[in-house]
From TrEMBL:
One of its GO terms (molecular function) is sequence-specific DNA binding. Pfam families: HTH_1, LysR_substrate. Belongs to the LysR transcriptional regulatory family. Keywords: DNA-binding, Transcription, Transcription regulation. InterPro entries: LysR-type_TF_proteobact-type, LysR_HTH_N, LysR_subst-bd, WH-like_DNA-bd_sf, WH_DNA-bd_sf. This is LysR family transcriptional regulator. It comes from Mesorhizobium waimense.
Length: 299
């Protein structure tokens, strides 16, 4: 007896739209148009003879029937995906989709990535740098390189790097503005800050024993990469949060003027969901990443 199943494309469109709460976001994930997503959802509603969504100003909202349908459908799609990946897990061939911060990709991973690609030519890599928190279920993401103050509770989680912060400056800045040899020498200097951690200089000064420094950055950016690049151009003193500035330090574009490293308690972690953790290509990338991070102080 034939199964009474709707078209798989309609199921995928419904599940993606339910997770995203938006036709546009679902369309971006599925690489089709918003109208195509809407058409697939309507065909599914016709098939099940029920309304699955209501439209609101803030986006799509599941009906009560839609919520019940999604609960069972999500589990079923996860099992289909896990079964498919289990068949593929013994081969390195295929692609890796990796999520991480945009600045972390730009300043750290991308400068090193050619080494991995050259050693593993059969593996393709896609980087996703959207700032949103990601959910593995229903997504194509195989690996998340995630920052946290505590270890995330995921199927596969391994610490890569303990975060350490320290002031960095360009050699040209020191030549034109005089030496910086102690934390007190930074008082009154043009400090560069980052919106994501607006009080990092206060935190650092306090840890270095400089109380009530009241040093407000004179130049602020909304990304770590821009702050470090501005420092490399001699525009002031930025805070490096390892590993963001490692490449610029290695190239000599930035230097650490004195021993002023402070641990923040945060760290970067390698995260993989159960469905992809056993894939050969994920294991190869994990091993390469751990090798890359050797010596960076993960405890």
């Amino acid at each position: 007896m034939a199964r009474r199943l709707p078209p798989f494309a309609a199921l995928r469109a419904f599940e993606a739209a339910a997770r995203a709460g938006s036709l546009a976001d679902a369309a971006e994930e599925l690489l089709i148009s918003s109208s195509a997503v809407s058409h697939q959802i309507k065909s599914l509603e016709t098939f099940v003879s029920a309304r699955l969504f209501v439209r609101e100003q803030t986006g799509l909202k599941l009906t009560e029937i839609g919520e019940k349908y999604l609960e069972g459908l999500g589990d079923a799609l996860d099992r289909i995906e896990a079964s498919t990946l289990s068949v593929m897990q013994n081969t390195k061939n295929g692609g890796l989709t990796i999520h991480l911060f945009q600045s972390l990709a730009q300043m750290w991973l991308i400068p090193h990535l050619d080494d991995f690609l050259s050693a593993n030519p059969e593996i393709s890599v896609k980087l996703i740098t959207k700032p949103d928190d990601i959910e593995f279920s229903g997504s194509s993401i195989d690996i998340d390189i995630r920052y946290g103050m505590t270890a995330p509770e995921e199927h596969t989680c391994e610490k890569l790097i303990d975060e350490v912060i320290a002031p960095v400056v360009s050699p040209d800045y020191l030549r034109h503005n005089g030496p910086i040899e102690t934390p007190e020498d930074l008082l009154g200097r043009r400090l560069i800050g980052c919106d994501y951690v607006p009080h990092e200089w206060d935190f650092w000064f306090e840890k270095m024993g400089v109380q009530d420094s009241n040093q407000t950055p004179k130049l602020m950016f909304d990304s770590r990469s821009h702050a470090l690049l501005a420092a490399s151009e001699g525009m002031g003193v930025a805070m490096n949060r390892r590993p963001y500035g490692d490449i610029l330090l290695k190239r000599g574009s930035l230097i650490t003027p004195f021993a002023g490293e402070v641990r923040t308690g945060g760290a970067y972690y390698f995260i993989a969901p159960k469905r992809s953790a056993g894939l050969a290509r994920v294991k190869h990338f994990r091993a390469w990443l751990l090798s890359l991070c050797t010596g960076l102080g993960a405890e």
